[in-house]
TrEMBL record:
It holds the Pfam family RIP. Keywords: Hydrolase, Plant defense, Protein synthesis inhibitor, Signal, Toxin. Gene3D superfamilies: Ricin (A subunit), domain 1. It comes from Streptomyces mobaraensis (Streptoverticillium mobaraense). This is Uncharacterized protein. InterPro entries: Ribosome-inact_prot_sf, Ribosome_inactivat_1/2, Ribosome_inactivat_prot, Ribosome_inactivat_prot_CS, Ribosome_inactivat_prot_sub1. Residues 1-20 form the signal peptide.
C-alpha cells in the first residue's frame, strides 16, 4: 500500500493513532517489575521514518512488554496492588517534513488507565474525570522528578467511553487503525495548541482514543496487541476495532477476578464474554488476557465506561 501523507491521514482518519517503532526500547526506574511510590517508570519508542516494517512490528511488541513490566506487581501477570507511582510513555514520530515530535502519555500503573499527556512544548493535560490525580501524582514524584510543568491543565472531556467517543465523534468500532493513523495521532498530540476547542478538540479525543488502545489495551490483551502489530508491520488499513476485542476490553475486570480466584484454588464462575463465549480455566484466560487487574475494585468496564 502506498504511504499517504500525514495531512491526508489527518483528513481521512480524523487523527487516528497507530504506532510504528524503531530504536531502543527500555524501561527506566526500578529494576523489578513494579513502579514504587514517588517513582516514575519510563518506557519509550521511536517511529522510524521508513514506516511499517517487521522491525517496527517487533519493536512495538517489545515496547508493550516494557509497559507491562512497569505496571506489574511482583506477580508479573497482574498490575500492582498499590495505587502509587506513575508511568511515562514517550512516543516520538516524524511529520511529513521529517521533523520529529515527542508526546508523553501518563499512565496509572495500578490499572493502566491513561490519565493525560504532555505536548512537546511542556504543557500537560489531564482528563476531567480523574479529580486532578495526574497533577498530584506528578507533584509527589521524586525519582526521577518529571521534567514537566506540574501545573496541569484539564481537558473539557473525560476518559470514560461516553465522553471520549462523544468528543471524538466516533467510538472504537469506527476508528481507523494503520501505521499512518498512529503517526498522525502522535504528531497531533505532541503539537496541539488548544485541545479544548474547535477541530483540535475532536482530533485530540480521536488521537487519545487510539493511543489508549495501542498502549493500555494492548498491554492487557493479546488480540489487541496483535491488531497493532499488524499495523506496525504492514501498510494494511483496518476500519474499527473488532467487536470481539471490544467485548474483551469491557470484561477486563471479570476476567481478572476469575483469573485471581482460579489461581488461588478457589471456586469461581467462568465468565461469559459476548462474541467469544464462556472462558473456562487458566489456559483459556491466558489465551486472551496478558495482564490482569491486580485489584478489581479499580475497574469499571462496560459499554458506557471503557477501560481507559
Amino acid at each position: 500500500m502506498r504511504k499517504s501523507r500525514l495531512t491526508r491521514s489527518l483528513l481521512l482518519s480524523g487523527v487516528g493513532l497507530a504506532m510504528a517503532v524503531t530504536g531502543t526500547l527500555t524501561t527506566a526506574g526500578t529494576a523489578e517489575a513494579r513502579t514504587e511510590w514517588r517513582h516514575m517508570s519510563h518506557v519509550y519508542v521511536d517511529l522510524a521514518d521508513e514506516g511499517a516494517s517487521d522491525h517496527q512490528r517487533d519493536a512495538y511488541s517489545a515496547f508493550v512488554q516494557s509497559l507491562r513490566n512497569a505496571a506489574a506487581g511482583y506477580n508479573t501477570q497482574e498490575t500492582q496492588l498499590e495505587n502509587v507511582g506513575i508511568i511515562q510513555a514517550s512516543l516520538t514520530a516524524p511529520d511529513d517534513r521529517g521533523n520529529r515530535h515527542q508526546v508523553r502519555i501518563w499512565i496509572n500503573p495500578s490499572n493502566l488507565y491513561v490519565w493525560g499527556f504532555s505536548t512537546e512544548s511542556g504543557t500537560t493535560y489531564q482528563f476531567n474525570d480523574i479529580n486532578g490525580a495526574l497533577g498530584s501524582r506528578l507533584a509527589e514524584t521524586t525519582t526521577p522528578r518529571p521534567d514537566v510543568n506540574t501545573n496541569v491543565q484539564t481537558l473539557n472531556f473525560g476518559s470514560n467511553y461516553n465522553s471520549l467517543s462523544g468528543t471524538a465523534g466516533r467510538g472504537r468500532e469506527a476508528m481507523t487503525i494503520s501505521y499512518n493513523d498512529i503517526r498522525a495521532s502522535l504528531v497531533q498530540l505532541a503539537t496541539v495548541n488548544n485541545p479544548n476547542s474547535g477541530n483540535e478538540r475532536q482530533n485530540t479525543a480521536r488521537s487519545l482514543s487510539l493511543v489508549v488502545q495501542m498502549l493500555s489495551e494492548a498491554a492487557r490483551f493479546n488480540d489487541v496487541e496483535g491488531t497493532f502489530r499488524t499495523a506496525m508491520g504492514t501498510w494494511e488499513f483496518q476500519y474499527g476495532l473488532p467487536h470481539q476485542q471490544q467485548e474483551l476490553e469491557n470484561s477486563w475486570d471479570s476476567l481478572s477476578e476469575y483469573y485471581q480466584r482460579v489461581s488461588a484454588g478457589q471456586n469461581a464462575t467462568a465468565p461469559f464474554i459476548p462474541s467469544i463465549g464462556t472462558v473456562n480455566g487458566l489456559d483459556q484466560v491466558r489465551r486472551y488476557l496478558r495482564l490482569a487487574l491486580g485489584s478489581t475494585n479499580m475497574a469499571n468496564g462496560n459499554w458506557n465506561h471503557d477501560e481507559l
